[in-house]
Design goal:
heterodimer, A: alpha+beta, Glutaredoxin, globular, B: mainly alpha, 15 helices, about 0% strand, disulfide bond (chain A), THIRX-like_proc (chain A), Small redox-active disulfide protein 2 (chain A)
């Protein structure tokens, strides 16, 4: 089953770096997943995060407030 | 602490480049090299240390703590103190604000946090130690915390909840004392360090252009402006100096790390420390971009009151510094 990846962030530089890391991992390792960038503040609020960017995989918040490394994202996607 | 660096700089400027002592150019260059290296070392140390603290003490814990515990008035001070260790990116201010409101934390306490967090952060502390020494840094940090605490208490007394935007008021009505339990990322320190180090590098990379320009301008001014130059215009007896400096500072933001090295030179050349600190607090603490972001959760009126109260508190602390120091 493909995974749903959501990246929550209003467009600060950290959010863009996270987006890039995640897209890189998905294309590089051919991960079966859809990536969605959530920029609408109201939608971000629904996830109850305090700091952006946040990485949401299949509706579970995995990382918040920092830019993860590629290895980290890959590990999260493989579990 | 940095004698060794001064020796190296002296050697570099006077011996290697064989510029003669006491000339404008050589003094400016000496100042630039010494200051740039010293500040960078301090920034690395402070940001790295704060990164470690923050990695073990994330914002969610702070929110839960403030939301769960009855602190009998100390919550303003606590929120303000938490503001020091929690790094604050202005783009996170809205989710943070909503999260606090949702957790049932009073508006004034949330604002206390929002005021102190940008004012006393790792970059400001690193720059302060480098430019003004430990004593002034401690004074700055203490007054920053007090400023957040007192402004928070005042803002709470004003009962401003009705000036929040409607959707935030809805969130406020449904606020509960802590519903979510925070699951900490369980990682060993050796796993955390690379991430922290990466963060340090990215913060420094972001501010380095501003910093170098600031120190360069500072260096030139240091070499070319005569001692005591500003005393006549902006000395302690000029009562308008503090408000002027503060109001000038509020709209500025991005160049905070560039402006501090310049301010250091201004102090050297006769601007009183209190006036300078009021200016810095205005630059670092309040900004137009922040106001734009807060518009999502606050009505214009609330933002105006919020900025107004903080600005007045900054001016008061400026006057107080000028009296005490």
């Amino acid at each position: 089953m493909p995974k749903t990846i959501k990246i929550l962030g209003t467009g600060c530089s950290k959010c863009q770096s996270m987006m890039k890391v995640v897209t890189d991992v998905v294309t590089q390792y051919h991960v079966d997943a859809t990536i969605e960038k959530v920029e609408d503040m109201m939608k971000i609020m629904e996830f109850n995060v305090l700091v952006t960017p946040a990485l949401v995989i299949d509706d579970i918040i995995t990382i918040k407030g920092r830019v993860p490394s590629k290895e980290e994202v890959l590990a999260l996607l493989n579990t | 602490m940095f004698d060794w660096l001064q020796h190296i700089t002296n050697w570099l400027v006077y011996d290697v480049m064989s510029l003669s002592k006491g000339e404008h150019l050589s003094e400016a260059l000496n100042f630039f090299i010494y200051d740039a290296i010293k500040i960078l070392i301090l920034l690395f140390v402070v940001i790295f240390f704060m990164g470690i603290v923050n990695s073990y003490f994330p914002i969610d814990k702070v929110k839960n703590y403030l939301s769960r515990n009855k602190l009998y008035g100390l919550e303003y001070l606590m929120a303000s103190l938490f503001g020091i260790v929690i790094p604050f990116c202005s783009c996170s201010s809205v989710p943070l604000f909503i999260g606090f409101v949702r957790g049932g934390i009073p508006l004034g306490v949330t604002l206390a946090f929002l005021i102190t967090s940008p004012l006393v952060n790792e970059v400001a502390i690193g720059l302060f130690i480098g430019l003004f020494g430990l004593k002034t840094t401690v004074i700055y940090v203490v007054s920053g915390v007090l400023l957040g605490t007192i402004s928070g208490i005042i803002l709470q007394q004003l009962k401003l909840e009705s000036y929040l935007t409607p959707w935030v008021q809805k969130v406020l009505a449904n606020a509960q004392k802590e519903q979510d339990t925070f699951i900490a990322e369980k990682q060993t320190i050796s796993k955390r360090l690379p991430a922290i180090w990466k963060e340090v590098k990215s913060i420094i990379k972001g501010i380095i252009p501003y910093l170098l320009v600031g120190i360069a301008v500072g260096g030139l001014m240091h070499g070319y402006i005569p001692e005591g130059f500003f005393e006549n215009y902006m000395g302690k007896d000029n009562l308008f100096a503090v408000p002027m400096a503060t109001i000038l500072a509020v709209p500025m933001y991005t160049n905070a790390s560039g402006i501090l090295p310049v301010v250091q030179v201004l102090i050297d050349k006769g601007i009183p420390l209190g006036t300078a600190i009021a200016f810095m607090m205005g630059v670092v603490g309040l900004s137009l971009p922040e106001a734009m972001l807060l518009k999502k959760v606050m009505t214009f009126r609330l933002i105006a009151i919020f900025f107004g109260v903080v600005t007045i508190c900054i001016m008061i602390s400026g006057y107080m510094f000028n009296l005490i120091l």
